[in-house]
């Protein structure tokens, strides 16, 4: 049985990286405030083969703070942009392909971003790491669709 998806990641690149860090050791003893924000954009891409192609750009921002009282004593700020080029069969419905880009494409890039951020944080921290939480991209897509529908009068 073949479980290979017709939707494929053909390549990706890290487009932008920015890190500001003043932690030496990031020990999470329940006193770290974490915030992760991300957004994505999709667009069609040119192709020279018998398939359709699209690009997903995922932007992720991470902010981790350690406070003592009201004062922030340490902070890690990171942001980066990762872009992936995806393909699907040329006979795939255009809406289905857009959904694949939004859900599967974003999830694939987010997984790559998790590994990238673990590696990056291990290079700037003596102890500890920054780990992105897992995200349910199907639920996120459904929520965005519900929020974009006009409300009934």
Describe the fold and architecture.
The structure is a single chain. By secondary structure, the chain is an alpha+beta fold. It has a single domain (18-145), classed as Roll (Bacterial Protein-export protein SecB), CATH 3.10.420. It is built from 2 helices and 4 strands, in the order ββββαα. A 4-stranded antiparallel beta sheet has the order 1-4-3-2, with helices on one face. A hairpin with a 5-residue loop joins strand 2 (32-45) and strand 3 (51-68).
Write a concise synopsis of the structure shown:
With 153 residues, this protein is α+β, with helices and mostly antiparallel strands.
Quote the average pLDDT: 91
Please count the beta strands (DSSP E, at least 2 residues each): 4
Number of domains: 1
Structural class: alpha+beta
CATH architecture tag: Roll
Helix content: 25-40%
- Give the CATH superfamily: SecB-like
Q: Describe the global form.
A: elongated
H and E string: EEEEHH
CATH topology: Bacterial Protein-export protein SecB
Supply the CATH class.
Answer: Alpha Beta
Cα(first) to Cα(last) distance is 50 Å
Gyration radius, in Å = 19 Å
The parts where pLDDT drops under 50 for at least 5 residues are none
Sheet with the most strands? Answer: 4 strands, antiparallel
Question: Reading side by side through the largest sheet, how are the strands ordered?
Answer: 1-4-3-2
SS summary, helix count:
2
* DSSP strand content: 35-45%
């Amino acid at each position: 049985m073949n479980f290979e998806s017709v939707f494929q990641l053909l390549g990706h690149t890290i487009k932008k990286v920015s890190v500001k860090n003043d932690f030496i050791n990031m020990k999470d003893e329940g006193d770290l405030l974490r915030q992760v924000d991300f957004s994505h954009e999709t667009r069609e891409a040119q192709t020279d083969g018998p398939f359709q192609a699209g690009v997903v750009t995922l932007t992720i921002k991470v902010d981790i703070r350690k406070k003592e009282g009201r004062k922030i004593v340490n902070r890690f700020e990171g942001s980066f942009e990762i872009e992936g080029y995806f393909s699907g069969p040329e006979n795939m419905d255009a809406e289905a392909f857009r959904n694949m880009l939004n859900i599967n494409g974003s999830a694939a890039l987010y997984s790559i971003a998790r590994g990238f951020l673990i590696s990056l944080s291990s290079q700037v921290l003596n102890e500890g790491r920054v780990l992105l939480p897992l995200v349910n991209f199907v639920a996120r897509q459904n929520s965005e669709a519900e929020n974009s529908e006009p409300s009934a009068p």
